[in-house]
Amino acid sequence: MTKPKKGRVFSAARPTGRQHLGNYLGAIQNYIALQENYECVYCIADVHALTTVESTENLRQNTYEMALDWLALGIRPAETILFVQSQVPEVMELHTYLSMVTPLGKLTDLPTFKEKARQQPYNINYGLVGYPVLMTADIVLYKTDLVPVGVDQQPHLEFARETVRSFNYRYNSNVLIEPQMKATEVPKVLGIDGQQKMSKSLDNHIELAASPEETTQRVMQMVTDPARIRRTDPGNPDVCNVFSFHKVFSSPAEVSMIDVECRRAGIGCVDCKKMLAHNLNLHLAPYREQRARLDQEPDQVWEVLEDGRKRADTIAERTMQEVREAVGLPKVMGK
Ligand code: SF4
Question: 152 C-alpha to center of ligand 1: Å?
Answer without folding.
Answer: 30
